[in-house]
Amino acid sequence: MCPKGSSVKGSLLLLLLMSSQLLSRSVESLPICPSGAVNCQVSLSDLFDRAVMLSHYIHSLSSEMFNEFDERYAQGRGFITKAINSCHTSSLSTPEDKEQAQQIRHEDLLNLVLRVLRSWNEPLYHLVTEVRSMQEAPDTILLKAMEIEEQNKRLLEGMEKIVGQVHPGDRENEVYSVWSGLPSLQMADEDTRLFAFYNLLHCLRRDSHKIDNYLKLLKCRLIHDSNC
Amino acid sequence: MPFLLKEKEANMKENVTSTTIFLLLLFLNTNLLNGQSAPGKPKIEKCRSPEKETFTCWWKPGSDGGTAANYTLFYRKEGESLTHECPDYKTGGPYSCYFNKKHTSIWMIYIIWVNATNQMGRSMSEPHYVDVTYIVEPDPPLNLTLEVKQSEDRKSYLLLKWSPPALVDVRSGWLTLQYELRLKPEKAPEWETHFAGQQTQFKIFSLYPGQKYLVEVRCKPDHGSWSQWSPENSIVIPSDIKMKDTTVWIFVAILSSVVCLIMVWTMALKGYSMITCLLPPVPGPKIKGFDTHLLEKGKSEELLSALGCQGFPPTSDREDLLVEYLEVDDSEDQQLMPTYEKDHPSQGRKPTQLDPDNDSGRGSCDSPSLLSEKCEEPRIPAPTFTIPEVNEKPDDPGTNVTHNWDPQGINFKGKNPYFNALGSKSSTWPIPQQSSNHSLRCSYHNIADICKVALGTVNGPTVSLGKEENHALNYPTTIDTGGEETTDKQNELGHFHSNVDQGTTWLLPNEKMPFMSPRPMDYVEIHKVNKDGALSLLPKQKESNGNTEQASAPDSSKEYAKVSRVMDNNILVLMQDPRAQTRVIFEESAKESPQPLQHNQAEKNLSYCTFPPGDCRLQTGGLDYLDPTCFIHSFN
């Protein structure tokens, strides 16, 4: 009787521990692997599916946010003429058409994606902060900015996992482009400030589209053998 | 001579002026006829990329630009300072510029403008900023095929298939397409749209047979614009499904009509029996086993046996019948027919279908006709209580009960063998053992049992009868039934009966009383038996059928009347219970004033019932109710 009881108790305790582990994580980010697992073998296919889903979502949000801002604040100001060659990530040499993207090696392309993602950590953080303080900004823009910041972090985690599976050991130093547009965002002059926002949102829309496209290319290439 | 020279000079000047004017006018006219002017400002209308690898821009000439103007398109790419001219003016049609793959870069802003030049001047359009990333609009899907197919459960559906547009590279993942289709019956005004996701086929169910449907499909890249609708394709749904449905419905209609006809026919033929099955008729009152013919013949044994008076004591499962009670009949012309008239040894149950109305107090063998016709037959009714001589000594020396039923005293005349049997048995009746000072034994019997015991008992434990209550009985020792002619007893009993049902109690000396099946009769409860053998009855609480208990005792707990004494050897005089307001008193007998003393004694002596130790509870005060089973067991 005694050993039976203790074994039952032990299994119950184990169940409780596992459930608490699972529940302690937020609902939104279902973990691919439970924390602490060393050799978690979630399939690459699932990792790519998730990454593509996230990147697609981030670009949709960015596109909506840009359009909304453009309609509301940027009409007739000619911001587009000034937003030429003004993204901080343009120093990263990314492929510019399909041929270039198909010729680049997938490891390099993955690293490129990581760099772009890392380059956007800080700008997104400041974007949220400044939009929040901007009283005339509608809630929708703020909410989208917050969501993009959140999902970007997740995508970065996922990409690091993919890189860890695809070519582990080839860890490059964390290279990314530095963003220096914060002072512009905080300018008192409304026109300058609005252009700073416009430029930031414009560059965000473009880079999120790049990431989305690269990941879809990689997914079809690596998972489906170029036969999507 | 100088006058002539001056005139010639003037004519020459006039000629030169007019010629000049003429020439000027001619020149101006010529210009106006040719329509020559600086071209209007062109405007770039739209740029589009069908596969995100090439793109085309279209412009519109200026308002007053003539056909003679030359249009040139120039562009500059973001991050470069060089200006390029449009590589291809033809592929895209007039006023277009087509950028092939070599000249197309993604994620880069193009600054494009158009120059219009003619002889008179030139004009330039506004610069147009375009990023190929956001101008993707593919061609419509190709090869839309329609086919009607059958699924496993014989449902037919329409299967649509198509292929992506030719130029789009879906296989490498450069573009991800989503599809949408729409269909409508040929003459319908509105389209029905369905989103198909990334699949290149679609199934549509529940289409109307015999109709012609039109279908179109279009596609959209993951972050671009919808394409145009594909060319229409049509199909006619075959109409054989309709026929099958009709056949099925006809079959169902015929089957249901046949079923209805069968039901109606069945109802018509056997309606009555069905109704009787569903609603059985209320049975009329009759005595089970009672045969009037036998009665006429005078064969009492057969009649009584046919009536089913069997099986005493009752051994059935009905626990409430464990209580024996004396049934008292209140009808004047009826005699109390104890159930011992039936087969003595059998302790069967009286059938319960007896008429409850006027059979109260009657044994199962009792019936008006029976009693009347057999008036000379020996009856051993309850008066047999009175009949036996209470001469025998009580087996319990110290008890109040001191009478014995003298079997010999009972004159059983007639042909009733039961009595004899009972009488013969009387001598062998076991003497109740008493374990306490209380001499009286409490047991509960119906009248039949009481009668039996009366016949056979040696000792006289009192038995209190009542409706499912056990009471100690006091029977007066004056009850003298010995030697009395039964007919007299019957008469008296009849009197007795008339008053009894209101609360007379019978004293039954027996230790082992056969149980009689309960009947809806009035039972009187024997309160107790005092030492004189007075039968103490408790008046009935309920509404009296008879005359005695008009002002019934308000104390509903009491249904008993105490018999104070017996007068003239055949009349029971009831006592008034002090606890009750009114008492049942015999009509015939003189109204006895309540005798509180005796009553009190009676009350105090309630607890004289003896119980076998350990089996029954001895209750003091109030009315004692005893489980007769304990007596039975103790007796055994």
Automatic annotation (TrEMBL), chain A:
Annotated Zn(2+) binding sites: H56, D212
GO term, biological process aspect, one: prolactin signaling pathway
Cellular compartment(s): Secreted
Any single Gene Ontology cellular-component annotation: extracellular space
GO molecular-function terms, A-Z: hormone activity; metal ion binding; prolactin receptor binding
Pfam families: Hormone_1 (PF00103)
Keywords: Disulfide bond, Hormone, Lactation, Metal-binding, Phosphoprotein, Secreted, Signal, Zinc
InterPro entries: 4_helix_cytokine-like_core, Somatotropin/Prolactin, Somatotropin_CS
Superkingdom in the source lineage: Eukaryota
CDD domains named in the record: prolactin_like
Signal peptide per UniProt: 1-29
Assigned protein family: Belongs to the somatotropin/prolactin family.
SUBUNIT field: Interacts with PRLR.
Record's protein name: Prolactin
UniProtKB/TrEMBL annotation, chain B:
Topological type in the membrane: Single-pass type I membrane protein
Subunit structure: Interacts with SMARCA1. Interacts with NEK3 and VAV2 and this interaction is prolactin-dependent.
Gene Ontology biological process: cytokine-mediated signaling pathway; negative regulation of apoptotic process; positive regulation of cell population proliferation
Protein name according to UniProt: Prolactin receptor
Organism: Monodelphis domestica
Domain Fibronectin type-III: 38-139, 140-240
Transmembrane feature ranges: 248-269
Lineage of producing organism: Eukaryota, Metazoa, Chordata, Craniata, Vertebrata
Region entry Disordered, spans: 336-395, 538-559
InterPro entries associated with the record: FN3_dom, FN3_sf, Growth/epo_recpt_lig-bind, Ig-like_fold, Long_hematopoietin_rcpt_CS, Type-I_Cytokine_Rcpt
Purpose: This is a receptor for the anterior pituitary hormone prolactin.
Location in or out of the cell: Membrane
Keyword vocabulary terms for this entry: Disulfide bond, Glycoprotein, Membrane, Metal-binding, Receptor, Repeat, Signal, Transmembrane, Transmembrane helix, Zinc
Family affiliation: Belongs to the type I cytokine receptor family. Type 1 subfamily.
Molecular-function GO terms, alphabetical: cytokine binding; lipid binding; metal ion binding; peptide hormone binding; prolactin receptor activity
